Amino acid sequence: QVQLVESGGGLVQAGGSLRLSCIASGRDVSTSAMGWYRRVPGRQRELVALVTSVSSTGYVHSEYVDSVKGRFTISRDNVKNTVYLQMNSLKPEDTAVYYCNTRPPIDGSWGQGTQVTVSS
Q1: Do 108 and 96 contact (CB within 8 A), yes or no?
Q2: Are strands 96-102 and 10-13 parallel, antiparallel or unpaired?
Q3: 35, 36, 41, 64: which sits with the fewest CB atoms below 10 Å from its CB?
Q4: Contact 68, 94 (CB under 8 A)
C-alpha cells in the first residue's frame, strides 16, 4: 500500500500562488499515473490534474480540468517519489482540501490532504 502525504497549502489572496507537494512512500509510484484531487465541503472530490508516468523516451503527458487550465501545472520527480502542483492566479473558487493519489485512485491511500484557502 502506498502512503501519501500532502503539504504546501495555506491562506493566500486571490491572484496569488501556492506550490503543493505530495510525497509517496511504501511503494514506488514512478510507473503510476498520479493525480491531484480537491474536495469542497458538500461536494464530491474532483480530479483537477493528472500526470502520466514517464515513457521510455522521456515523454510525460498532463491533463487538467477546464477550470484550472493555464493556471495550474502538475509535475513529478520520480527520484524523490514526489508529485507537485504549482497553482498560479488563484481564485476563491479554488478553495478546497487538495489530495494526491494515483489515477485511478487507491481507496486506502488517501492522505489527510492540504487545505488551500483563497481570499477575495
Answers
A1: no
A2: unpaired
A3: 41
A4: yes
Sequence-separated (6 or more) residues with CB below 8 Å from residue 1: 26, 27, 106, 108, 109
| DSSP helix/strand/coil, 93 | helix
For residues 103 and 120, give the distance between their C-alpha atoms in angstroms, rounded to a whole number: 32
Q: Which residues of 67-102 are buried (b: 16+ CB within 10 A; e: fewer)?
A: ebeeebbbebeeeebbbbbebeebeeebbbbbbbbb
- Of how many residues is the chain composed? 120
Q: Which cell numbers hold the place of 20?
A: 503543493
Report how far residue 114's alpha carbon sits from residue 9's, in angstroms, rounded to the nearest whole number: 5
Q: What is the pLDDT of residues 12-55, one digit of tens each?
A: 999 999 999 999 999 889 999 999 999 998 999 999 999 999 88
Query: Residue 79 corresponds to which cell in the numbers above?
Result: 527520484
- Grid coordinates standing for 98? 487538495
